[in-house]
Design goal:
The protein is mainly β and 261 residues long. Helix content is 10%, strand content 30%.
Length: 261
């Protein structure tokens, strides 16, 4: 009889089979293709907060594709706003940023699974400085826990993470998939100073089934040096709402001075 090496977090759920693992990894690759816009509330842990920029506590975020964002604090005050859709496209821009040659996900076609999740994804433009806090990029696009494509069949341990448990759950009213993960040797963090699954831990990661974003990250066990990794919590408020440009612009185009030659 097999004895689990750690207490099960979902004792009533069956051991994940290969189909369930493939489905979870495909969902982790899929976030850029599942939504045109998101409105969500995210709790900023004290370790990542920036009081000098009013980025503390719980904030509400509107984000459109990977081109525009507006962040409000609990009092409804705008604390961060940025957009790239009106950025100049001169020769200097083309030479200065990879965003000039990496395309947004909307312009690229990945390889889909039979249930319209992402089996293999192309290289796409990142958030490229759009977000006020770098770790949000991984929460909004948790591809690092799955890799951009399935591991080779002849390399049994080549996946970025080992999936100990899987469970279909309802998380704060939303359909989600929860997984208990450990990082493998091929794990590569998307952000240099942040890992969704810290090394030498068992970590609970909950992915929203509709949007693919990470709703919860919680370190369950591991070395004492990483147990302090904070819980991350995100709540989806709206998906695919239409937001006009002025939601994200500091100065509306009608208010800009007219330059006459």
């Amino acid at each position: 009889m097999d004895v689990p090496s750690a207490q099960l977090y979902f004792p009533g759920s069956p051991a994940p089979d290969s189909n369930a693992r493939r489905r979870f990894r495909a969902l982790a690759r899929s976030a850029p293709w599942l939504s045109t816009s998101l409105k969500f509330e995210i709790d900023i842990p004290e370790e990542y907060s920036q009081p000098q920029r009013n980025l503390t506590g719980s904030v509400t975020v509107k984000i459109r594709q990977r081109e525009a964002i507006a962040v409000h604090n609990e009092s409804g005050e705008l604390v961060f706003q940025k957009e790239t859709f009106s950025a100049q496209r001169s020769r200097d821009y083309l030479a200065a940023t990879s965003a000039s040659w990496k395309l947004p996900s909307t312009l690229l076609t990945p390889v889909y699974t039979s249930d319209q999740l992402i089996l293999r994804r192309p290289e796409i433009a990142g958030f490229d400085g759009l977000l006020p806090l770098d770790y949000w990029a991984t929460v909004l696009d948790p591809v690092e826990i799955a890799g951009t494509e399935p591991a080779a069949l002849d390399l049994a341990f080549d996946h970025p993470t080992y999936i100990h448990e899987l469970s279909d759950i309802v998380h704060e009213g939303r359909q989600a998939i929860a997984a208990v993960l450990s990082a493998g040797y091929s794990y590569q963090a998307s952000q240099a100073n942040f890992r969704l699954v810290p090394a030498d831990t068992r970590t609970l990661v909950v992915l929203d089934l509709s949007t693919g974003v990470c709703l919860l990250r919680q370190v369950l066990s591991g070395a004492s040096s990483v147990l302090a990794a904070p819980d991350l919590r995100l709540r989806i408020l709206a998906q695919d709402e239409y937001y006009i440009n002025s939601h994200f612009q500091r100065e509306h185009w009608l208010d800009q001075p007219v330059v006459r030659s």
